[in-house]
Give the backbone structure.
Amino acid sequence: MNSLDKGIPISVAPVKYADDLTNTELFMGSLPGQMQLAINEVDSWAKSYSMAANVKKTKDMVISCRKEAVNPPPLTLNGERVERVRKFKLLGVIVSDDLSWGPHIDYILSKVRPRLHYLRLSKRAGLPADVLLDIYMAFIRPVLEYGSPVWGGLPRGLAEELEKVQRSCCRIISIPYEQLPTLESRRREATTRELRRVVADPTHPCHQFLQPATECQYQLRRAPRFKLPLSRSNRHSQSFIPRALAMLNHN
């Protein structure tokens, strides 16, 4: 898919993973966007390899945190209008048009409820606590944590919804809740690990957002390693890069 980049307009940033493609563009109000040209190029590229872009699986989403509605022109693919959505699943994570994580947490909870039922059935079948704990850590907790470096900066209410699931599992297994690390602490560890991978890999897409901190004339016990990006909203400060850098600088 590397050859696809050559024909896409420079204002459109393609993000590829396996056979998934996500095109992003900063929409500048009244200025005409280039997303339609990018879609046309993707369609032409696919046809040149005897493939076809699926309009039913193609979604259009406008991300905006403004109070007034932002409504760019609709997009088309093969003469059909591309559906504009408020949220969609990208690589297993539900992304919403206001960058809130409520829809994703609802999605997680809907996935773990049947697994809680299976855990209860396993308890009734007489499985010992250590086996039940293995079931929780292998089949339930990974669902609660998948992609957490991305969405881990949750409001207290949403974070508590996830902790309730772990508490319920501890009651089913008959172990004290304090025996397990909190999901919040594990999310913090996962975020720090992911940032360390970004720091160590100059080719990582997020590496461009790292700016070394300026040297301070005072000898500080814990001098910050990286400059924190300016955040004008709590939503931005709790996104991956600002949140992870804050954690790394304080470790």
Observations:
- Helices lie at 35-48, 102-124, 129-145, 148-151, 156-173, 183-200, 234-237, 240-250.
- The radius of gyration is 22 Å.
- The chain has a mean pLDDT of 89.
